[in-house]
Design brief:
Organism: Caenorhabditis remanei (Caenorhabditis vulgaris)
Number of domains: 1
Number of helices: 6
Pfam family, one: HTH_48
Order of helices and strands: HHHHHH
Protein name: Mos1 transposase HTH domain-containing protein
Shape: globular
Largest sheet: none
Distance between the termini: 35 Å
Helix content: 55-70%
Length: 112
Amino acid sequence: MTDIPPNSPIDLRALILYDIHQWKTTEKSYENYEKLCEVLGKEAISYEEYESFFNKYVEESYNSTKDGRGLSIPDIRRCILSNITNGKSAEKSIEDLCDAFKDNKIDKEDHV
């Protein structure tokens, strides 16, 4: 499988896993990713490359749920930015993030 580009401005794994948890399709997730890249002034990877990551993380998400491991997420800052750019309230954003990444401690102070 393809590795995440080392210069990626967005933690693709965290963003994709978050989108998967919100039942977004590959297409909607990519639109979200493109919007974030635009806000950050960065170039987006191709849809085909993104789709390969999306499929990889769908499988990872399924397997972690099935075996009870849970998901380890290193950096959710872009998930927060995604929520902001999509007009989600701070309260709803923290609620969704805590629900998606419940095995990780998310400090509400870091969210604001």
